[in-house]
Amino acid sequence: MSKYKNPNYQKDYYQKNKDKIDKYSKEWYNLNRDREIKKRTEYKKENPEWHRECSRRNMVKNYKNNPEYRKKVRLNAKEKAQKRRLLIITHYSNNTMQCNCCGDKHIEFLSIDHINGGGNKHRKELFGYTCSGDRFYSWLIRNNFPEGYQILCYNCNLSRGFYGYCPHQKEKDECIC
Protein backbone atom coordinates (compact mmCIF):
# COMPACT_ATOMS: atom_id res chain seq x y z
CA MET A 1 0.00 0.00 0.00
CA SER A 2 1.35 3.39 -0.98
CA LYS A 3 1.81 6.09 1.65
CA TYR A 4 -0.76 8.24 -0.16
CA LYS A 5 -3.45 5.60 0.13
CA ASN A 6 -2.88 5.12 3.84
CA PRO A 7 -5.20 7.58 5.62
CA ASN A 8 -3.11 7.42 8.80
CA TYR A 9 0.22 8.01 7.10
CA GLN A 10 0.67 11.56 8.42
CA LYS A 11 -0.33 10.59 11.96
CA ASP A 12 1.99 7.62 11.93
CA TYR A 13 4.86 9.63 10.48
CA TYR A 14 4.40 12.34 13.12
CA GLN A 15 4.34 9.80 15.94
CA LYS A 16 7.53 8.17 14.69
CA ASN A 17 9.35 11.50 14.18
CA LYS A 18 7.72 13.66 16.84
CA ASP A 19 10.93 14.83 18.54
CA LYS A 20 12.64 15.68 15.25
CA ILE A 21 9.57 17.55 13.92
CA ASP A 22 9.05 19.48 17.18
CA LYS A 23 12.72 20.46 17.31
CA TYR A 24 12.62 21.67 13.69
CA SER A 25 9.38 23.62 14.31
CA LYS A 26 10.83 25.39 17.34
CA GLU A 27 14.03 26.27 15.48
CA TRP A 28 12.08 27.56 12.48
CA TYR A 29 9.79 29.65 14.72
CA ASN A 30 12.74 31.16 16.59
CA LEU A 31 14.38 32.14 13.30
CA ASN A 32 11.14 33.63 11.93
CA ARG A 33 9.57 34.84 15.18
CA ASP A 34 9.33 38.55 14.37
CA ARG A 35 7.84 37.91 10.95
CA GLU A 36 5.28 35.45 12.37
CA ILE A 37 4.24 37.81 15.17
CA LYS A 38 3.82 40.66 12.67
CA LYS A 39 1.79 38.42 10.35
CA ARG A 40 -0.51 37.27 13.18
CA THR A 41 -0.96 40.81 14.49
CA GLU A 42 -1.94 42.06 11.03
CA TYR A 43 -4.38 39.18 10.57
CA LYS A 44 -6.00 39.94 13.96
CA LYS A 45 -6.42 43.59 12.98
CA GLU A 46 -7.92 42.69 9.59
CA ASN A 47 -10.24 40.06 11.10
CA PRO A 48 -11.34 41.32 14.53
CA GLU A 49 -14.53 39.23 14.56
CA TRP A 50 -12.58 36.05 13.90
CA HIS A 51 -10.04 36.90 16.60
CA ARG A 52 -12.76 37.77 19.12
CA GLU A 53 -14.65 34.54 18.38
CA CYS A 54 -11.50 32.38 18.66
CA SER A 55 -10.50 34.05 21.92
CA ARG A 56 -14.00 33.63 23.32
CA ARG A 57 -14.19 29.98 22.23
CA ASN A 58 -10.81 29.14 23.77
CA MET A 59 -11.64 30.94 26.99
CA VAL A 60 -15.00 29.17 27.31
CA LYS A 61 -13.37 25.80 26.62
CA ASN A 62 -10.62 26.39 29.16
CA TYR A 63 -12.97 27.98 31.67
CA LYS A 64 -15.36 25.01 31.61
CA ASN A 65 -12.80 22.22 31.59
CA ASN A 66 -9.99 23.57 33.73
CA PRO A 67 -10.66 24.62 37.34
CA GLU A 68 -7.11 25.96 37.70
CA TYR A 69 -7.60 28.20 34.67
CA ARG A 70 -10.95 29.36 36.07
CA LYS A 71 -9.30 30.23 39.38
CA LYS A 72 -6.48 32.06 37.60
CA VAL A 73 -8.93 34.10 35.47
CA ARG A 74 -10.98 35.12 38.50
CA LEU A 75 -7.91 36.08 40.50
CA ASN A 76 -6.49 38.08 37.59
CA ALA A 77 -9.80 39.92 37.10
CA LYS A 78 -10.02 40.69 40.82
CA GLU A 79 -6.46 42.06 40.90
CA LYS A 80 -7.08 44.25 37.84
CA ALA A 81 -10.32 45.57 39.36
CA GLN A 82 -8.53 46.44 42.61
CA LYS A 83 -5.79 48.28 40.71
CA ARG A 84 -8.39 50.28 38.75
CA ARG A 85 -10.26 51.14 41.95
CA LEU A 86 -7.06 52.35 43.65
CA LEU A 87 -6.18 54.40 40.58
CA ILE A 88 -9.62 56.07 40.64
CA ILE A 89 -9.46 56.74 44.39
CA THR A 90 -5.94 58.15 44.10
CA HIS A 91 -6.86 60.44 41.22
CA TYR A 92 -10.17 61.80 42.52
CA SER A 93 -8.90 62.25 46.09
CA ASN A 94 -5.87 64.23 44.86
CA ASN A 95 -3.53 61.54 46.25
CA THR A 96 -4.93 61.90 49.80
CA MET A 97 -6.79 58.56 49.69
CA GLN A 98 -9.50 59.86 52.03
CA CYS A 99 -13.15 60.91 52.05
CA ASN A 100 -13.61 64.43 50.70
CA CYS A 101 -16.22 65.12 53.42
CA CYS A 102 -15.24 63.47 56.71
CA GLY A 103 -11.62 62.50 55.99
CA ASP A 104 -12.12 58.75 56.56
CA LYS A 105 -9.03 56.92 55.26
CA HIS A 106 -10.32 53.32 55.26
CA ILE A 107 -9.88 52.29 51.62
CA GLU A 108 -12.61 49.66 52.00
CA PHE A 109 -15.20 52.39 52.69
CA LEU A 110 -14.24 54.84 49.95
CA SER A 111 -16.40 55.18 46.84
CA ILE A 112 -16.85 57.43 43.82
CA ASP A 113 -19.55 60.12 43.97
CA HIS A 114 -21.13 62.28 41.28
CA ILE A 115 -20.65 65.79 42.72
CA ASN A 116 -23.90 67.10 41.23
CA GLY A 117 -25.88 63.93 41.96
CA GLY A 118 -27.67 61.87 39.31
CA GLY A 119 -25.17 59.01 39.34
CA ASN A 120 -27.78 56.30 38.85
CA LYS A 121 -29.30 58.12 35.87
CA HIS A 122 -25.84 58.75 34.40
CA ARG A 123 -24.80 55.09 34.63
CA LYS A 124 -28.12 54.04 33.06
CA GLU A 125 -27.43 56.36 30.10
CA LEU A 126 -23.90 54.99 29.70
CA PHE A 127 -24.52 51.28 30.03
CA GLY A 128 -28.26 50.84 29.47
CA TYR A 129 -28.68 49.73 33.07
CA THR A 130 -27.34 50.79 36.40
CA CYS A 131 -23.97 49.34 37.16
CA SER A 132 -21.35 50.15 39.67
CA GLY A 133 -17.82 49.29 40.55
CA ASP A 134 -15.33 48.03 38.05
CA ARG A 135 -17.29 48.73 34.86
CA PHE A 136 -17.80 52.35 35.87
CA TYR A 137 -14.17 52.67 36.99
CA SER A 138 -13.04 51.39 33.59
CA TRP A 139 -15.24 53.99 31.90
CA LEU A 140 -13.70 56.78 34.01
CA ILE A 141 -10.17 55.65 33.08
CA ARG A 142 -11.00 55.28 29.35
CA ASN A 143 -12.44 58.80 29.37
CA ASN A 144 -9.33 60.31 30.98
CA PHE A 145 -10.81 60.95 34.42
CA PRO A 146 -13.58 63.44 33.58
CA GLU A 147 -14.44 66.15 36.09
CA GLY A 148 -17.54 66.08 38.26
CA TYR A 149 -16.57 63.23 40.58
CA GLN A 150 -15.16 63.02 44.09
CA ILE A 151 -14.25 60.38 46.63
CA LEU A 152 -16.56 59.94 49.60
CA CYS A 153 -16.86 57.24 52.22
CA TYR A 154 -19.89 55.04 51.82
CA ASN A 155 -21.75 56.75 54.70
CA CYS A 156 -21.30 60.24 53.26
CA ASN A 157 -22.18 59.03 49.76
CA LEU A 158 -25.39 57.31 50.86
CA SER A 159 -26.44 60.23 53.03
CA ARG A 160 -26.02 62.63 50.11
CA GLY A 161 -28.02 60.29 47.90
CA PHE A 162 -30.87 59.74 50.35
CA TYR A 163 -31.09 63.13 52.10
CA GLY A 164 -29.31 65.52 49.77
CA TYR A 165 -26.69 66.44 52.37
CA CYS A 166 -24.11 64.81 54.59
CA PRO A 167 -24.38 65.11 58.39
CA HIS A 168 -20.66 65.91 58.52
CA GLN A 169 -21.20 69.01 56.37
CA LYS A 170 -24.18 70.03 58.50
CA GLU A 171 -22.02 69.75 61.63
CA LYS A 172 -19.26 71.85 60.02
CA ASP A 173 -21.78 74.53 58.98
CA GLU A 174 -23.27 74.73 62.50
CA CYS A 175 -19.84 74.91 64.19
CA ILE A 176 -18.71 78.48 64.92
CA CYS A 177 -15.00 77.80 65.25
Properties at a glance:
9 helices; mainly alpha; two-stranded antiparallel ribbon; single chain; 6% strand
Question: Can you describe this structure?
Answer:
The protein is elongated. Helix 4 (48-65) crosses helix 5 (67-92) and helix 5 packs across helix 7 (134-142). The protein has helices spanning 9-16, 18-31, 33-46, 48-65, 67-92, 119-127, 134-142, 154-163, 167-174; strands at 110-114, 149-153. The protein is built from 9 helices and 2 strands; from the N terminus they run H-H-H-H-H-E-H-H-E-H-H. The chain has a domain at 68-174. The chain has 177 residues and is mostly helical. The longest helix is centred in the middle third of the chain and has 26 residues, at 67-92. The protein has a two-stranded antiparallel sheet with strand order 1-2.
Describe the secondary structure blueprint for this structure.
Blueprint: H1 9-16, H2 18-31, H3 33-46, H4 48-65, H5 67-92, E1 110-114, H6 119-127, H7 134-142, E2 149-153, H8 154-163, H9 167-174
Antiparallel strand pairs: 1-2
Shape: elongated
Determine the N-to-C terminus distance: 103 Å
**Uncertain stretches of 5 or more adjacent residues:** none
Classify the beta-strand content into a percent band: 5-15%
The portion of residues assigned to helices is 55-70%
Spatial arrangement of strands, main beta sheet: 1-2
**Based on helices, strands and strand pairing, what is the structural class?**
mainly alpha
Mean pLDDT: 88
**Biggest beta-sheet profile:** 2 strands, antiparallel
Q: Number of helical segments?
A: 9
The helix/strand series, from N terminus to C terminus, equals: HHHHHEHHEHH
Number of extended strands: 2
Rg over alpha carbons: 27 Å
